[in-house]
Design brief:
With 269 residues, the chain is an alpha+beta fold. The chain is 27% helix and 28% strand.
């Protein structure tokens, strides 16, 4: 790892928005520290998530397809920054209420999810979801005139919406995407089939309406066990009896067979 890579720090902002920054001033950073970082125009405040060699280097791509520049950490946050953050959070609430009202007035088919203000007040970002492209140019112009700062409307997906607003999953724990997941991986119904789960959408879908991210966690372990068994539904012979293989007990590494005489037996590889 190069010296520049060793200075990389992952910073987390509101809504679990993350970015890589360089610690060019060799600040004694540790996880949880609040810092002031460079922004596109001005500066922002975030929380240290990962530092040094633990940072996973990846090139972020902007919406226009160009690489996102890795900016610098300016300084540690101070007491005055905490006061500014409190004021910004209140202003974000006011902007959210105002934004929803203006959406209704413009009759735009979009849902306002969250509002995030840059720490220096130089930009306000309105995050929204929509089923199709929306022409919101008139709305942006109106918002800029009201709030007297740069306005950005950013469309996000439903999984990103859940990540920003958080919540509790069917397991009773905080949503993975809002707690520790940094990237969304592709999840398919094949994962549920491999784990012999009901394909009822209400059982295998998360708060966002998409397939549960946690279906990915144990998929590899299930496949390691399943490779030793015939496909469910196949015909098998155990001793002098034949039947249909219909279930795998992954935890005990044995499969259940329904024999033609309606009796049951276990098949072990």
């Amino acid at each position: 790892m190069s010296q520049n890579e060793q200075k990389l720090v992952e910073i987390v902002f509101k809504g679990e928005r993350r970015g890589l920054f360089r610690n060019t001033k060799d600040l004694p950073l540790k996880t949880g520290d609040k810092v002031i970082v460079e922004a596109e125009r001005g500066y922002d405040m975030g929380r240290v998530s990962v530092t040094g060699e633990l940072v996973r280097m990846k090139q972020e791509i902007d919406r226009d397809g160009s690489p996102v520049p890795i900016r610098n950490i300016l300084r540690m946050a101070e007491a005055k920054d905490a006061d500014s953050a409190i004021r910004n959070r209140q202003r974000e609430k006011d902007c959210y209420i105002d934004g929803k009202q203006r959406l209704e007035c413009h009759k735009l088919d979009m849902k306002l999810v969250d509002v995030e203000m840059q720490h220096d007040g130089g930009k306000i970002t309105f995050f929204f979801t929509a089923s199709q492209r929306v022409d919101f140019r008139a709305l942006v112009k109106e918002l800029a005139g009201v709030h007297r700062t740069r306005i950005e409307l950013r469309q996000i997906g439903v999984r990103d919406e859940a990540k920003r607003i958080g919540g509790v999953g069917v397991c009773g724990r905080p949503l993975c995407c809002n707690s520790f997941l940094t990237d969304f991986e592709q999840i398919t119904t094949q994962f549920a089939k491999d784990q012999q789960l009901s394909l009822n959408p209400t059982k295998i879908s998360g708060n966002c309406g998409r397939l549960l991210c946690c279906l990915k966690y144990e998929e590899e372990d299930y496949l390691k066990v399943l490779q030793h068994f015939p496909p469910v539904g196949s015909r098998v012979k155990i001793g002098d009896k034949t039947g249909t293989f219909f279930f795998v007990n992954v935890f005990e590494s044995k499969g259940n067979v329904r024999f033609d005489d309606n009796s049951f037996g276990w098949h072990q590889p």
